[in-house]
Amino acid sequence: MCSGSVKPWRAAAALLCLGLLVAVCLPPVRADAVERSRRGELKRVLILHSFGREFRPWSEYARDIKAELERKSPWPLDIQEHALLSARFNNPGPDAPFVEYLHSLYQGALPDIVLCIGAPAARFAQRYRAKLFPDTPLIHAVVEHRLVDRANLSSNDVVVAIRNDFLVAFENILQVLPDTKSVAVVVGASPLEKFWLEEVKRELKPLDQKIELVWYSDLAFDDILKRAANLPPHTALFWGLMSVDAAGVVHESDIALRSLHAVANAPIFSYAEPFFGDSTVGGPMHTIAETSSRTVSAAIGILGGAKPESISYEPIGFAAPRYDSRELQRWGISESRLPPGSAILFREPNIWQRYRWQMLMIVAIFLVQAGLISGLLHERRRRRFAEVESRQRLAELAHANRYSAVSEFTTSVAHELNQPLGSILTNAETAELILSTSSPDISEVRQILADIRRDDHRASEVIRRLRSILRKTPFEVKDIELNETVRETLGLVKAVADGRHIALTYVPVLADLHVRGDPVQLQQVILNLIINAMDAVSDANADKREVSVSTVRAGNQAEIRITDTGPGIAATDLAKVFDPFFTTKPQGMGMGLAIVKTIVEAHHGEIAAANHAAGGALFTIRLPIAQ
Ligand code: ADP
């Protein structure tokens, strides 16, 4: 047996006990209430329920009607509620005890109005009104128009009827789930439910060819649950009413519906708002608000003196369709299938709505972070640009500086070129003389030609070195062997040193010194330092004119040392020699050492100037050894 079910005889006994209890414990009418009622202040309202006070859908209508009545009534209200219950049993007992109970309760102080909720209550009131409240106006609320007992309506009755349209309800199922092949209809076995079963069958005739209809009216509710849990695909359930099942078990309607929802493997449809919200998919349905507002306005009108016969309403049909978003999702029903004008309720709050503040914080942090990153990237790009630009400038400046350096020793270079060219000329003339003899010495001619070739090499080597140092190249980093670079530079200034009678010596470290750098710019560094050193020793005695270059490996650094035997650098100038435009020479520019320092630093190295204890200047360059 379902946990929500009650045996009919037990419920009937409980009802009687309750009636007796109320009759014994409550004074039928309080004297002050009667007095106020006589003065027209207090209005006495009797609400008569058909199926018990907690039986959906009527319970929801009654709750809303009562609340709205209390809210809108200009008079204080004394609302009494009674439930028939008998409509829920297949074989209810006689009405007489309940009629007697009501009669004794209201004898002498009749209600000002009786609100009947549902058809059974309305019929009961019509049947016993002569005995219970002969002149009291009756409102028949939430009664399907087919169940109104029109033959027994009096001028004291107002009908607020509803109209069930099962064809519309089933067409809604086919609209949202067009693949539906079969619909199982859940309906109980009480006389009222049997009436509706026949009505539904009759109304759905037009759908005979479209879908198979399965009726659960002859099943116990437990069996209905088992079937609903194992329905074939493309089946839907339609919730009619479950008051009493085929096994005679009475059910609280909403408990039964929730049990069905918990096990069903197919979507459940229905046609009344009170079933909507935790179990059914939705569609066109009766809404509580319209019935409630009509009932309350009729009641207030009558309590205020209006004649009931002057109030008449057309039955209320289904309102615009509503759907439960959770059920739509659960059964994969696309919102595009819903009819136009549908309302979708119970939307699950999305992550934005659920974690609004947290998400805003995350977005804010993300934006700040993105801003910082793009700022840093922009800054980095600008730095890169600046670096490239400064290297470009450096390359141009260095090139100009090389020109001026080289121009200083053009005479020596010319001299150096003249030497091999003069030798070539002399050797060529000698060869001609030998060849003009009757028996020329061919081996000697061969020797002369070899000398010519060697001199030509010497001359072209001078030109190659010059061209290489004067080349205008962008800053270019490659792997270079430092000893070789130093040797090449010395080759360039050797002739100058010779011309100035300066002893230029080179002591290379025995191992290879690989660094990463621009070979032309590093040559320029060495060249500038040697030229400065040669300038420094030029005024000294010929026997003291020495410039010495050496390379050393110190840990993971390569060192180039350039010393001379000149006067050295004044102590006060030591800190300034690398400053641009610092010079002590009458024709000096003061740019040589500034460029040297910039080039060395661009190679991640460092340069230092110092004086030897024995006299003369010492310049030390340190460059990182290539990995
Ligand atoms: P410039 O040679 O045009 O003067 P530099 O920047 O090459 O420009 O040199 C700056 C100054 O540093 C020189 O004028 C000189 O006073 C000093 N200096 C450079 N090298 C030496 C050296 N080997 N001995 C003495 N003084 C030097």
TrEMBL record:
Q: Which GO terms describe its molecular function?
A: phosphorelay sensor kinase activity
TM region(s), chain numbering: 357-377
Domain spans labelled Histidine kinase: 412-627
Origin superkingdom: Bacteria
> Which InterPro entries would you find in this protein's record?
HATPase_C_sf (IPR036890), HATPase_dom (IPR003594), His_kinase_dom (IPR005467), HisK_dim/P_dom (IPR003661), HisK_dim/P_sf (IPR036097), Sig_transdc_His_kin-like_C (IPR004358)
Pfam family for this entry, one? HATPase_c
What EC number(s) does the entry state?
A: 2.7.13.3
Its recorded reaction(s) are: ATP + protein L-histidine = ADP + protein N-phospho-L-histidine
CDD domains linked: HisKA
Keywords of the record:
Membrane, Phosphoprotein, Transmembrane, Transmembrane helix
Q: Which residues form the signal peptide?
A: none
> What is the name listed in the Swiss-Prot or TrEMBL entry for this protein?
histidine kinase
Source species taxonomy: Bacteria, Pseudomonadati, Pseudomonadota, Alphaproteobacteria, Hyphomicrobiales
